[in-house]
Amino acid sequence: MPTPAYLTLVGKSQGLISAGALGKESVGTAWQMGREDQIMIQALTHGISVPGGAKASQRMHKPLIITKVIDKSSPLLNIALCNAEILTTCRVEWYRPAGSAGREHFYTMELGDAVIVGVDIALPHCQSMETAQFTQLETVQFAYQTITWRHEIAGTSGYDFWQNEGH
């Protein structure tokens, strides 16, 4: 089973958007001590492509898309979307099993000059046995100007500046 990743978000206008997102008032019994000011990511997708090959055209960064439970940050994410708020911090921390140590932070993705470009909310069918184990979820899409990848344990990193005209 994958280990959740955690998102820290700071908006230029709203400040720490992820403040209290994993607190008891926000997510009830799912709260996590020490991670109260982060958003727990249930799923994440992101991609970069070079249509036609490296010599034929420029690279295209697709939106980074996360799936998360509805929490304290949900209204603030919608405000950031509606106001095209620049996110001064958009950091995803990835964790993996680390034996007796529990989990270790091994990978980081940071988006620079990010904005939210979409928020979708879903309530699975409440009477369907196929979705009985699911909860209320939302999907958030981020576009950005820069991206940094860091493997915290191995010491490697990469960076790209992506001039997205739609951003």
UniProtKB/TrEMBL annotation:
PANTHER family: MAJOR EXPORTED PROTEIN (PTHR34319). This is Type VI secretion system tube protein Hcp.
